[in-house]
Protein: L-threonylcarbamoyladenylate synthase
Amino acid sequence: MSAVYDCSDPHARADGLKAAISAVRSGRLVVLPTDTVYGIGADAFDATAVRALLQAKNRGPDMPVGVLVGSWSTVDGLVLGLSQEARTLIEAFWPGDLSIVVSHAPSLHWNLGTTRGTVMLRMPLHPVALEVLREVGPMAVSSANVSGQPPASTMQEAKEQLGESVAVYLDGGPSGDPVPSTIVDLTGEKPSLLREGAVSAEAVSEALGMEIGRAQ
Structure:
């Protein structure tokens, strides 16, 4: 049976964080608040757990899962050489609502779906998410909803869609406007905008010192 923890209560929050960390380490799924919408997450290096995440959302590996990290330094161990553009965007917008797509290190043993050697990374600006990430390391995280349904902006909305497929639900209150992160692809010759979300294209261009094009 799923466990629900109200993170507005200090004691429940502490218990919830312990339960979520234990669940992730044992290959189970958790729902946690982020600075965009609620996310469903698993250990990024546990292929069985990532498959369970995709099954809970009713989606296939053709829609790969992004990875959330708890610190800037974590990224260096995940990518094959971090470009100056990537470092600039990380320094400008992390923690926050910007995701970057980069080539991951070939030595990594993970299966996030059909990624073609790339990974989408983000560091969220939410204390509950960051506490979990800093304990368990990189997590595969997707919006906490069944594919095709609206993203969950509350824990209850996530629970109504995902039910008992999730071991632990961390309730951090409403997430606010359900605006997704902006996604910038850094795997090509020049950065390109895959999705404009909470961070504007103009803000990305200003940080990089160049006009950013949109992916075709």
About this structure: The domain at 3-180 is CATH 3.90.870.10 (DHBP synthase). The chain has one domain: 3-180. The mean pLDDT is 93. The CA atoms of residues 137 and 187 lie 24 Å apart.
